[in-house]
């Protein structure tokens, strides 16, 4: 009483208590993380033991309450000038007589397998937390269950990269497409779009597709997609192709490596 029930040896709070929250990691596909979806997962959860009703004790017929604590679940212990309460050693704090339940070994809980559908919001990234109410550890004394927090880990994509709400991709174009300009098809999370390659585009130049990135989890506003153009030279030993490449030399005008200096 002197320490407000917080001292060593004090009994746990009486009455219903909420169960503990649980955290679990879930690997999510790159496209599912961007567009959202539903993933089915199987979890191992603790549930109140069906044999003892979650008390951890099996009652003895004819004895409705523990005689040691008179059904209170607590006993007083004297330590010098102070008196402390602690869970009754004979009933395990349940107030009911009997022996420890063999099914749960006196813990009051049993592990069970449960399959649930997890809704993945559009825009989740590595470390995003999805709350599933009531899917954590069960409560005590009739209290509500805790929550399950699913922490997402997004699998990388073989072509696209993500930086926050923006996406990036490298796209090959031919020499003629870069020099003369062209329209090419680019896949985005909302569908294919046509990207205009301006005349005279250089290899490494970045083009922006506004609003074609990832939706922000809070604002729902989409980021952008950045397309890096890579001019591809034909892999050919054909004399005609080599002659065409040599013919282009006179159009460069200046030394391509003039700025390479130490």
Q: Report the average pLDDT across residues.
A: 84
- Shape descriptor reads rod-shaped
Portion of residues in beta strands equals 25-35%
Fraction of residues in helices?
under 10%
Instruction: Sketch the topology as an H/E string, one letter per element.
Output: EHEEEEEEEEEEHEEEEH
The largest pleated sheet is described as: 4 strands, mixed
Q: Kindly report how far apart the N and C termini lie.
A: 79 Å
Strand order of the largest sheet: 10-11-15-14
Low-confidence stretches: 1-13
Description:
With 262 residues, this protein is mainly beta. It contains 3 helices and 15 strands. The chain has helices at 30-35, 175-180, 239-248, and strands at 22-28, 37-48, 57-58, 74-79, 82-87, 99-100, 109-120, 129-132, 148-154, 161-163, 166-173, 182-186, 193-197, 206-209, 225-231. The strands form 6 sheets. A 4-stranded mixed β-sheet has the order 10-11-15-14. Strands 1-9-8 form a 3-stranded mixed β-sheet. Strand 12 and strand 13 (193-197) form a beta hairpin. The chain starts with 21 loop residues before the first strand and ends in a 14-residue tail after the last helix.
Summarize the structure.
By secondary structure, the protein is mainly beta.
């Amino acid at each position: 009483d002197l320490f407000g029930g917080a001292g060593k040896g004090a009994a746990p709070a009486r009455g219903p208590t909420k169960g503990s929250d649980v955290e679990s990691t879930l690997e999510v596909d790159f496209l599912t993380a961007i567009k959202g979806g539903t993933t089915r997962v199987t979890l191992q959860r603790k549930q109140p033991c069906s044999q003892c009703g979650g008390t951890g004790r099996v009652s003895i017929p004819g004895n409705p309450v523990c005689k040691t604590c008179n059904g209170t679940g607590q006993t007083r212990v004297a330590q010098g000038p102070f008196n402390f309460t602690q869970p009754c050693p004979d009933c395990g704090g349940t107030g009911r007589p009997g022996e420890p339940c063999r099914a749960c070994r006196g813990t009051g809980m049993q592990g069970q397998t449960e399959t649930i559908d997890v809704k993945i919001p559009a825009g989740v990234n590595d470390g995003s937390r999805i709350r599933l109410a009531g899917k954590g550890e069960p409560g005590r004394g009739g209290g509500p269950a805790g929550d399950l927090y699913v922490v997402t880990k997004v699998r990388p994509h073989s072509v696209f990269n993500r930086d926050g709400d923006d996406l990036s991709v490298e796209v090959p174009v031919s020499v003629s497409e870069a020099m003369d300009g062209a329209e090419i098809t680019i896949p985005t999370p909302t569908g294919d779009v046509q990207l205009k390659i301006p005349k005279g585009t250089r290899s490494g130049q970045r083009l922006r597709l506004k609003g074609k990135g990832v939706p922000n989890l809070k604002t729902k506003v989409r980021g952008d997609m950045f397309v890096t153009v890579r001019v591809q030279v034909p892999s050919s030993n054909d004399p005609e192709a080599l002659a065409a490449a040599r013919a282009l030399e006179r159009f460069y005008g200046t030394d391509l490596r003039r700025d390479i200096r130490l």
